[in-house]
Amino acid sequence: MTLVGRIAYRTSMFVLAIAAIIGAWELYKLIGPQGGGKFFGVSILPRANNNAMPHVWDMFSRFGRPEVRGSDRKIWVVVLSGAWFSLRLSFVGFLLGSTVGVGLAVLMTRFRIVQRGLLPYLVMSQTVPLIALAPLVVSWGGKLEIGSFVWPRWLSASILGMFLAFFPIAVGTLRGLASAPSAAMELMESYAASWKQTLFKLRFPAAVPFMVPAFKLAASGAVVGVVVAEISTGLKGGIGRLIIEYAREATGDPAKVFTAVFGAAALGLTMSGIVAVSDLLLMRNRPKETTT
Amino acid sequence: MSAVQVVGTSKIFNEGSAKQVDAIVEVNLTVESGEFVSLIGPSGCGKSTLLRLIANLLEPTQGVVSVNGKTAAQARLDQDYGMAFQQAGLFDWRTVGKNIELPLELKGWDKTKRAKRAEEMLHLVKLPEFAEMYPWQLSGGMQQRIAIARALAAHPPLLLMDEPFGALDEMTREYMQGELLRICAETSTTVVFVTHSIPEAVYLSNRVVVMSPRPGRIVEIIDVNLGAKRTEDTRAAEGFFRSITAVREALRGTHADHVAATAIRGVEDR
């Protein structure tokens, strides 16, 4: 398939998937129990009433109305600017995570002992709940000073994005760097290539098919990290803050919180979109069987 | 000056442990400049090990290996040899031209000089119009020709080949053998060639080195007198068959104490 054809195919599948989700939502509203349902005494089925599950059109029309009554700021403007704020933080987190992840992978490839010593801790780091970590990192805001650099509060959110982003990148890159065939390694050795030459001319190019899916995971990880940091610390300006604010109004204005949720989803899609485009560019000259 | 000199060389893996393998023991071999020498023997006779010792990809446990009058290590640093393997081993992410340029890049050649040499090499292997293609768009035989072009790009005086045509079909294989002889004659390259195939060894070589397994030893070195110029007619010549028989008997001899049926396992009789 050509590049344009592949993009068209992916886009149409995406639209189809959205339509299927909307259909399922409305179908459940139609047949689901209004007051929720219980299985063996445990309430498990969500309420299908308009307070818990607003109609899809209500949610979307909410975007066009003001954020608070009497205000002239439409809610889509607020959500969009919140998403833009969080996107920038996520992107910083993603970049930091990529640097740390790739750096660690190179270090672990170079020194077997580092790999053996470090890898278990990296795995363990991902078992720490983000919510437990968030207040700690955010408390650095305004307090931490490194020379003339004062730690801004938003950077803490990016750091938490980094925390989720670096791990898949470190692991994926590590596997990728090790994936160079031994015959190719032998060839580089026969040319008396230095370790650095082998790294950049063989190991990294060979790692690309492993790195691309890792970066995709990392992109959405960075968004989750930032949004969770915003929610758990109430950092102003981002989509996470909007989600908690709007959730408080859920009884009176149930559609409102969903606008912020959509904003967060759009944010995640934008991030993985950026990675998907770079994937297409990086893999365009590879054998097509190995592309995912 | 000899192209390759292997003196009293042994290679023992896992020395002293239960898994000790005497890959080759007390091997002496001299390859003169311009010669084509094949190493043949059953699987596990250490012919690839010997090739890797010459390439300095392995260090000998004992003995001395010199290439072009230098130590093998120095020869590797100076890129005095090119190498080709059974798998062409081209880099998927580089165009054919850039693949050929790889050794030159590592040597620090500038861009225009590299491109010029790559073009020359593509002409040498008769694939001049393929520079911008990617390796995976080429057939196996073409890929192997590109691998040879890459191995010879820096004009090394010595070419080391480890079953380079082992993965090719018979027709392509015979064609490639002819091409290899032409290329080596044009570039006056010395070749050490590892193979499983008796006819291939005989067709290509001035001398065939027959090796025995466990421990790997040279049992016999057979001179092939088929003249300098070999053509498709050579394959039907009487001398060709005589040499094949000589090599086969030498190989049988390596297994005097084995059951005949298992005698030449790993050696293709085609």
Notes on the protein architecture:
The complex is a heterodimer of chains A (292) and B (270). Chain A is mainly α. Chain A folds into two domains: 1-53; 67-290, Orthogonal Bundle (MetI-like fold). Chain A has ten helices and four strands; from the N terminus they run H-E-E-H-H-H-H-E-E-H-H-H-H-H. A two-stranded antiparallel ribbon of chain A has the order 1-2. Chain A has a two-stranded antiparallel ribbon with strand order 3-4. The two termini of chain A are 13 Å apart. The model of chain A has no long low-confidence stretch (mean pLDDT 87). Chain B is an alpha/beta fold and 270 residues long. Chain B has two domains: 1-80 and 159-165 and 175-270, Rossmann fold (3-Layer(aba) Sandwich); 88-155, no CATH class. At the A-B interface, helix 7 and helix 8 of A face helix 3 of B.
Structural class of chain A: mainly alpha
Helix content of chain B: 25-40%
Mean of all residue-level pLDDT scores of chain B: 87
Q: State the oligomer.
A: heterodimer
List keywords for this structure.
heterodimer, A: 292 residues, mainly alpha, 2 domains, B: 270 residues, alpha/beta, Rossmann fold, 4-stranded antiparallel sheet, globular
Map the helices and strands:
The complex is a heterodimer of chains A (292) and B (270).
Chain A: H1 3-31, E1 37-39, E2 42-45, H2 56-62, H3 75-110, H4 112-125, H5 130-138, E3 145-146, E4 149-150, H6 153-177, H7 182-190, H8 195-233, H9 239-248, H10 254-282
Antiparallel strand pairs in A: 1-2, 3-4
Chain B: E1 2-13, E2 21-32, E3 36-40, H1 47-54, E4 62-67, E5 70-71, H2 72-77, E6 81-84, H3 96-107, H4 111-124, H5 140-152, E7 158-162, H6 170-187, E8 190-195, H7 198-204, E9 207-212, E10 217-223, H8 238-253
Parallel strand pairs in B: 3-8, 3-9, 6-7, 7-8
Antiparallel strand pairs in B: 1-2, 1-4, 4-5, 9-10
